[in-house]
Amino acid sequence: MLKVVPDESALIHRDGGYATLLVSDLHLGLEKEMASKGFRIPPYSQKMLDRMNAMAEKNSLNRVIVVGDVKHSIGKVQDIDWGIVPWFFGTLLDVFQSVEVVPGNHDGMLGTLLPGRVKLHSVEGTVIGERHKIGVAHGHSWPSEEVISSRTIVMGHSHFRYEMRDRFGSRRKEAVWLFARYDVAELLAKAGHPPSRRGEGRLIVMPPFNNLVGGQAINAKGGFDFGPILSSGSVRVSDADVFLLDGTRVG
What we know:
5 helices, 25% strand
């Protein structure tokens, strides 16, 4: 069973002995970049931990998987990463029995920062569940054959927003969920895998768990063309369902 947590950028997957929380795009250390641009905000990582802890307690969760972009820095480990990432995941290990990461494009050298008990998967993603299998990948690169063949792919990376305008011309963007269908055999072939499975699959694009990160408007021209999966032509983006965090359907 896979369900969206109401009013949150998170999924819960239940299968067998595991009750798993899925979140994406933490972007730990974003505060440093914002400070360099003149924005002074309190550390946001504690707020994210509090939200995850509340969901774990309310739903009796025993595992968490971070679906990429743990840290905000790209290409190297910065000073802020050495302090915040080990502390953040050490705290998660006090809450969850199992903590796992599927790395994203921001997560170079992430293995040097994570506590030893955190499981770090391949950038191609992983499959979880026995009766209800789902594939988990960040979305910045092609997933493995097993992830695509699972017929349910959960990914992040896109930071999709929906831009709204009022009658006075002011604009605001809100984070959204994207639910779409894909052709399994076609996506396997596009990813360079044998088209060994056929049929229709389900794609779920998560909003970023860090509410401070920006994102592109999904209702703008070219808004869907982000990452190899969505730009492959194998996903029926024209028929996608788009929802705000409060469940309002906007597309």
